[in-house]
Amino acid sequence: MTQLYQAGKGQITDEIRKVAEYEGIDVQKLTKRVAKGHVVIPSNKNRDTKPCGIGQGLSTKINANLGSSPELENVEWEIKKAQLAEKYGADALMDLSTGPNFREVRKAITESTKAPLGTVPIYQAGITASQKRGAVVNMEEDDMFHAIEEQAQEGVDFMTVHSGITMDTVEKLKRSERIMGIVSRGGAFLAAWILHNQEENPLYKNYDYLLEIAVEHDVTLSLGDGLRPGCLADASDIPQISELLTLGDLVKRAREAGVQVMVEGPGHVPLNQVEANMQIQKTVCSGAPFYVLGPIVTDLAPGYDHITSAIGGALAARAGADFLCYVTPAEHLSIPSLEDVKEGVIASKIAAQAADVANGYKGAWDRELKMARARKNFDWEKQYQLAFDPDKPKKCRERKPTPESDMCTMCGEFCALRMVRDNM
């Protein structure tokens, strides 16, 4: 039985109980939200996963993407990235490997963490087709569903499936005036397959079979936004909204089958459109948890897209997004380094915290108050402890010429806090 099915029967699972304790929320209330599909707890039956709740009334969660490519494949490096991402606050990880030894990479990441692990099975199907038949467009339906089944058996907790890419949405894309076309790799795999074979997307046509696999292993489906905008000029266009409408229908079908489901959201969105995108998704997809890729709010900052996405992510989470996919400084440029992973996670954590405070989440406010008291009391160790990155502020402070002083070098003897404190 899946988490959704058990919650619908009023059964409080171990996962629900642990999430309720972590979030400081009434367990009955959480059970009802899981039953409605407004909260998901990705946890495959075949894996010992640390429970993580994503959705209504819970703290904003962070995902970190990892994985190899045909250009660069180093298993130990990916393990270090996974460990580093968790250290700095990632709540979940996704393996997006497309290198020749993708199975080895996935196995290593799975064994190195208990955080919920996500994948995009169509990558495996595409690699298999390319190796056996010369091209991604030569995928067979069996390649797609074999990859999904294999990864579900291995214990993958959530999977991005681009079931919203249909012959109809591809036709709308062809008639659109998009600049960037399709920037989703999984979306491109399936759109190219549809155009080449002139057949309907098997992940849409055989969606009921996909749901059967998900039910068997309690895999949470993350309905991918294969037609997400790849630049600001393409945001909120007909192909994007058309796919979202299809996803709304697929959400309902997943819930009816007892499958946990969330929906992925746009990547590049002007700041003034972010809130509307969140509201449209929540309405169309009946309150399903929303997993946003950034969003990036300007296209002019390559090398700094962890910042552009943190700005968009904060506004998105304030307006209803539940799960932020980190963006690193290497976005659009290269596979992220260890330092890129760290900076990407911290930027997303800042966005999530800012939104959680604005949304009145008690845990976020408690942490802010602790930091305020630590600053008032010049308790530097406590400030380091509370910081998302304890090392950076410590190194900044070590630059001061008088280590024994409790003041910083910005104000020194003219410290506002000290002047008032010493005269009270």
What would you say this structure looks like, in words?
It is a single chain. This protein is of the alpha/beta class and 424 residues long. It has 2 domains: 318 residues, TIM Barrel, CATH 3.20.20.540; 60 residues, no CATH class. Helices cover 51% and strands 8% of the residues. An 8-stranded parallel β-barrel has the order 3-4-5-6-7-8-9-10, surrounded by 6 helices. Strands 1-2 form a two-stranded antiparallel sheet. Helix 14 links the parallel strand 9 and strand 10.
Mean pLDDT: 95
Number of helical segments with 4 or more residues: 19
Q: Which oligomerization state do the chains in this entry correspond to?
A: single chain
Structural class: alpha/beta
User: Any low-confidence stretches, pLDDT <50, length ≥5?
Assistant: none
Largest sheet: 8 strands, parallel, barrel
Assign the CATH architecture of the largest domain. Alpha-Beta Barrel
- As for the number of domains, it is 2
Question: Taking strands numbered 1, 2, ... along the chain, how are they ordered across the largest sheet?
Answer: 3-4-5-6-7-8-9-10
What's the name of the CATH homologous superfamily of the largest domain? Radical SAM ThiC family, central domain
- Helix-strand pattern: HHHEEEHEHEHHEHHHHEHEHEHEHHHHH
